[in-house]
Design a protein that fits this description.
Layout: H1 2-32, E1 49-51, E2 56-58, H2 60-63, E3 65-69, E4 79-85, E5 90-94, E6 102-108, E7 111-113, E8 117-122, E9 125-130, E10 133-138
Antiparallel strand pairs: 1-2, 3-4, 3-10, 4-5, 5-6, 6-7, 7-8, 8-9, 9-10
Protein name: Lipoprotein
Amino acid sequence: MKFNLFIISFLSIVSCQSNRTTSSTNTDTLSMIGGSKDKNGCLTSAGYSWSQLKNDCIRPFELGISMDILNTSKSYQTAAFVYIDSVQNKAEIFIPDEENSIVLNHSNDTLFTNGKFNLSKENFCWTLSLNSIKLYQERQ
């Protein structure tokens, strides 16, 4: 009788170890699901984008200034984000229609530009323009 209990206990332990190996393999497979990354290794499915200024993956909606689109009739996109690096005197904009972020240089106290995009401060709020067309404005 004791021998039978020993055999049953032994088989239970061995079968549990077998399940643990399988479950760790399943965990590895599950971690890969939804794990799409961009060319810089940023986990885009979790909202990460490559920041040229920080040289790292960031979530622009956590780090940057949120800006609302001004004309929603032509786009389903609703927001852009701006990260301002006062040390480098640069601003980085994250626009949904652009594959990469865009770096703007500090021009004066109220303007960052790259000749095409302009980030200007008007009435204490940032406004992003493409040439002279205002696209986004900082949320108030």
